[in-house]
Protein 1
Amino acid sequence: MNGQVWSRALITGGAGFVGSHLCARLLDAGTAVVCLDNLATGSRANVADLEPRPGFRFVRGDATDPEALAGLPGRFDLILHFACPASPVDYLRLPLETLDVGSTGTRLALERAHADGARFVLASTSEVYGDPLEHPQREGYWGNVNPVGPRSVYDESKRFAEALVTAHRGARGTDTAIVRIFNTYGPRMRTGDGRAVPTFVTQALDGMPLTVAGDGGQTRSLCYVDDTVDGVLALAASAETGPVNIGGDDEITMLELARRIIELTGSASRVRHVGRPVDDPARRRPDTRLARERLGWRPRVGWSEGLERTVGWFSRSAAA
Ligand code: NAD
């Protein structure tokens, strides 16, 4: 972790998929961790292994509640603002909550960072690029987002959060950074959250057809969660403000992904083509030059190896 060890970190959304991996990694590095989560889309099971460890504390609370944030005792030197419903199924079910946590939640987390003199990192997303007209997407690209489309609650929440972080830095000198995370996958994704990897893996393990949207020619660049965590912490440890893209380089079509998962699970499942969601981006691949040059980061786990680990985790969870 670039030799940097924080003494005490607050992770909003720490009981979610990516947040729980961040909590574990920071604890391993000797940082005390407070995980603030309202369990809207996360689960206590994600941090169950961490709860007995000294230095870890789970607080059930809402990041949009001023008292929940301001009321946390002690001082933090790192705040990672990861609270936000992140899968399309979740943010479409929780549209107003998604906008609130990007706006009020981000403002409150920034205020706490400012008061504590903490380094602050916002979890932003490749979705700020919308259905991109530039490929691959570099940080200077402004995006192609429909502000009133069904995905706008997520995309615009994150775009507003980025604006807020930038304004806080300029107006108040808060030590901030923005990471734009691309599709991340790995253990502790939730079955039924609608994202391609957990959906396909669960369908394959259950012997059900793998539901590929449209003709399956749309691409994503997958990043294994350990690599994403490395990137987030490298950014936190640096003096960079971002935005910085963190994501996988291997672009893969959804049809290829489904076939690879069928192969890995040894399933007899077939592919079934279903309707494509509105405003579903056709292509998505990060330009990661900035992260490579400024943070010395690069993804290390190829999608084949990462998928094997993920399938292994889902198989063990299903058997447990
Ligand atoms: P997740 O849904 O598993 O985790 C989000 C966590 O935030 C959950 O534990 C949820 O309960 C919590 N939460 C939501 N609203 C809250 C609130 N108001 N107060 C407190 N807690 C709240 O999603 P994830 O995939 O782990 O994503 C984590 C972050 O990373 C999100 O901000 C997301 O936008 C960002 N991100 C993730 C990906 C990805 O591929 N996983 C890609 C881009 C960006």
Note: DSSP finds ten helices and 13 strands in the chain.
Protein 2
Amino acid sequence: MPGGVGRRFSCRRIPRGRAVHFLPRMPIVTATRRLRFNAAHRIHNPALSDEENTRLFGKCNNPNWHGHNYVLEVSVTGPVDATSGYVMDLGALREIVEREVIDQMDHRNLNLEVPFLRGINPTSENIVVACWNALAPHVAPARLSKLRLWETENNYVEYSGDAAV
Ligand code: NI
């Protein structure tokens, strides 16, 4: 018997005494919180000449900065807690995201004023990866599963960590 019955179930098998009990498989759900911030930046690679920066980045290389109304969507994934019915309290997630990234970027210059972006050319791609690195350690026991960063209504980037690539 051992093994023969268990293989037919994807659920956890909990031995208790001589009896074997099967628990329903815990559903895994993704929950997303959307947050907004405004910030100024300049897309500039100091390793390139001014001419190369202008050619590569165009108006985004304006030395006098320009701004965006960014939207950051933060997704966490995990089992639904039996008591709360939540993957994670999205109010708690909002507080974490505000503390770790939004409050540092909102109404700031992303090139000059944000500690976790220091030394980074603030393209959306680089910002979303930096946000990931800042947020991932703080959402346990849920798992940070995806960030989507909107720079304009038409442009967004997504990052799910390097393991998902
Ligand atoms: Ni821009």
Note: Confidence is low (pLDDT under 50) at residues 1-10.
Protein 3
Amino acid sequence: MMNADELFSTAKKILKQSFGFSSFRPAQEAVIQNIFAGKDTLALLPTGGGKSICYQIPALVYPGTCIVVSPLLALMKDQVDNLVENGIAAAALNSQISPEESYEIRNKAIRGELKLLYLSPERIHFELDHLLSAMRISLFAIDEAHCISVWGHDFRPEYAELHTLRKRFPQIPLVALTATADAATRKDILSQLQIPAENTVLSSFDRPNLSLNVKVNLKKRDKLQEILKLLRKHTDESGIIYCLSRKGAETLADDLRGNGIDAEAYHAGLETEERIRIQENFLNDRIQVICATTAFGMGIDKPDIRFVIHYNTPKNMEGYYQEIGRAGRDGMPSDTLLFYNDHDMVMLAKFAEESGEQELQLEKLHRIEHYATSPICRRRILLSYFGETFDHDCNHCDICKNPPQRFDGTILAQKALSAIARTHESERSEIIVDILRGNRPQEIVEKHYDELKTFGVGRSTPTEKWEAYLLQLIHLGVIEKSYAADQHLSITAFGKEILFGKRKIDLALIRNENAEASKTSRENS
Ligand code: ADP
Ligand code: ZN
């Protein structure tokens, strides 16, 4: 058996020979080094970050077969076709495979003739006692690992069974990969697959070439004008406009065509041939703009999409991030524009209430609301949502281009952080505000919070302002709000630096509405 260094130099050779790439990206290297060191790993790489290489290369270096669990049949097929084209022995077992094919693939797998075998999650349970115990397995790769968690945006019950892999084959290395996992989802993946937290590889989720812009509560007519304005900047360049409904996508495509734009609607209600035709035409630049429901985009690999517009409010940050991430995959400057709207929110809240996990979906919806309406650099909010500390403003979003008035909020933040620390990071924001304000509702008295040193230190700041500042601190990545039912606040590593006086933090000034109003009335008189 080769040692880790020898394995890695073999890996580099194979990368060149089989894929034609001269080097690994830093995150890929970190993941592969981890695998070679025998560490189970969680890899968080943004879309386009190169997740497949992370397990395909170890699969080729190690003897035996790598089992890849993937939930998307279409992507599975693409990947296998690509590998086979590159002369790599790969196959997939899923519901689309005929019994004859399946028989042949299983035999190959048992004879050790496959380097990679893709399985849909529902197959795993069955194959555990059949195929998997009869094979020589080199590595388990769990793709789209966020599907394992109910905190994620795409929970799949079959994924919840995957912890059995870890139990049945404890000696076989495992790598879990995902492009979207907020802090809560991440913790859940780690615990279900028994991966030590320090084995997480987090590549930055920042996409610096994307400009982030939000317009709040525009009328239909004004939205169209904004879209046409953006299109004038991107003459002959491709873009996607995401809409909430099929009807909405069709109406918008009609309106755009009425304005001389080459636009088509795309949604799950179209015939398969029609959808394929539209995709092909878009890929080949024969259609400029696609007005689509979220059905569009999975597996679309068009590097030069120059803009992504959300015509309606998305239902969570994960989906939003994934969709804007389809712009500018070639690294060239690209624009994103979100139309946030209170009407959409009412409808999305209704959907959320009808869904199985009402509270979680509503909370996710609130995060979108905050993203769209708070006076903090959009990129900071986005990245702190994904658990990344981005400690400066981006200068490439509409807030940064037109910043609100700011003040040094370090002392204010320290007061809040100290209240959170003294309640052992177990309380929700209302309680923290009560402590800061020195309020004595029953819960405060029962828990003896009125005896804390921090009790009442923020009396001079009104409740609404404390609430707003706490939100800002969440968005700046200073504190984290849990998805668990108790919604407790905890302090991030960045927050600890502020608490201990090692860093300063600026906050956006929240105007005192009443004082402002009386000031203007005085000025006017
Ligand atoms: P993801 O699954 O994370 O979205 P992919 O695995 O599809 O990303 O890879 C995204 C793109 O990056 C692909 O076009 C792939 O060929 C390319 N790529 C991956 N790794 C490298 C590398 N080390 N060097 C250059 N290009 C790479
Ligand atoms: Zn910014």
Note: The first strand starts at residue 41 and ends at 44.
